[in-house]
Design goal:
It is built from ten helices and ten strands. Helix 1 crosses helix 2 and helix 1 runs parallel beside helix 3.
Length: 310
């Protein structure tokens, strides 16, 4: 078998295996890009055939995670969607805090957190909503390498391109050639490995789940399964936010809510007398800390790097 034939065979075998194991849809990748990625992975691992590489993926979790990381875009940055930030700060978190009752804690989940920027952003938004000390954040991802970066909480300038000068000064410490997340936002955040197509402990009782730009990479059936798992983790009345590019969700327990930040989802309470949700009404902004500036526009580059160098 020629080298080119071996790679073509590996693309088919590996794509099927990755799809079965984590639901990743590789159909959107260009053929040469996919072949190059798998060819490099095989050379690095020493595998000489599609079957031998698949067997390696089955017995070496690190190799599987390394391959998935190479096949997906793990890029993220802080305060990525200003409209959703405002929705969370001004409506969702205050609503959930009121539902929980005075002094009760809130549980937030960044599902598919990559290298942690979104998880820490949730902790920062909670403080801006006046809920410092009441919110804990869980960040999960399939990649242990990404989670190791997240746990350190040290980022380069690229990850802070959507962060205003006021937030930089208040939420980060300048360290060397980068920025470290302030300890008060590190303490309430924990990270753990999780595959979204597999169930998560429903007893976690999440008030908010944020899963942005993840479901779009999954096969339709896998995305539907992941959506059911996300919904099951929410308490009644809890919110699920996805990205504009993610597929619409059709989960019985979730009702669609129209907001200025686009469509969001809320888990039903199970009360048949509860009316269907209407648009989220504008509310008077709560007082901001003196260091909080007006939101600055975010200008995303035409091409983003696959993974930010750490």
């Amino acid at each position: 078998m020629s080298g080119a034939t071996a790679v073509v065979d590996a693309v088919r075998v590996v794509a099927e295996y990755v799809g079965d194991r984590c639901g990743l849809n590789l159909g959107g990748m260009r053929g040469p890009q996919l072949m190059s990625c798998i060819s490099r992975a095989m050379r690095r691992s020493g595998a000489t055939s599609a079957d031998s590489y698949r067997r390696l993926l089955e017995v070496q979790p690190e190799e599987f995670e390394r391959l998935v990381a190479a096949l997906t875009v793990g890029e993220s940055y802080f305060f990525r969607d200003p409209a959703q930030v405002e929705l969370l700060r001004d409506h969702v978190l205050p609503e959930r805090a009121a539902a929980r009752g005075s002094g009760a804690g809130l549980r937030l989940w960044s599902a598919g957190c990559a290298t942690g920027q979104e998880a820490y952003t949730l902790a920062m938004i909670a403080e801006e909503a006046g809920l410092a000390g009441r919110a804990t954040v869980l960040g999960t991802d399939l990649s242990r390498h990404a989670l190791a970066v997240a746990a350190v909480g040290h980022y380069r300038e690229w990850s802070l391109r959507g962060v205003s000068a006021g937030r930089r000064a208040a939420y980060f410490d300048a360290v060397g050639d980068g920025f470290r997340v302030e300890e008060r936002f590190v303490a309430p955040v924990t990270f753990r490995q999780h595959n979204l197509v597999e169930p998560i402990d429903a007893s976690l009782g999440m008030d908010v789940v944020v899963c942005r730009n993840v479901l779009i990479y999954l096969q339709p059936e896998a995305a539907a399964r992941a959506a059911r798992h996300l919904a099951s983790a929410l308490v009644p009345g809890g919110w699920l936010l996805t990205a504009a590019g993610d597929p619409p969700l059709d989960v019985e327990e979730l009702e669609v809510v129209r907001t200025k930040a686009g469509h969001a989802y809320r888990r039903t309470t199970g009360d048949p007398s509860r009316p269907a949700p209407g648009p989220v009404a504008p509310r008077r902004p709560s007082p901001r800390p003196v260091h909080e500036p007006v939101h600055e526009p975010v200008h995303e580059p035409a091409v983003e790097p696959a993974v930010e160098p750490q």
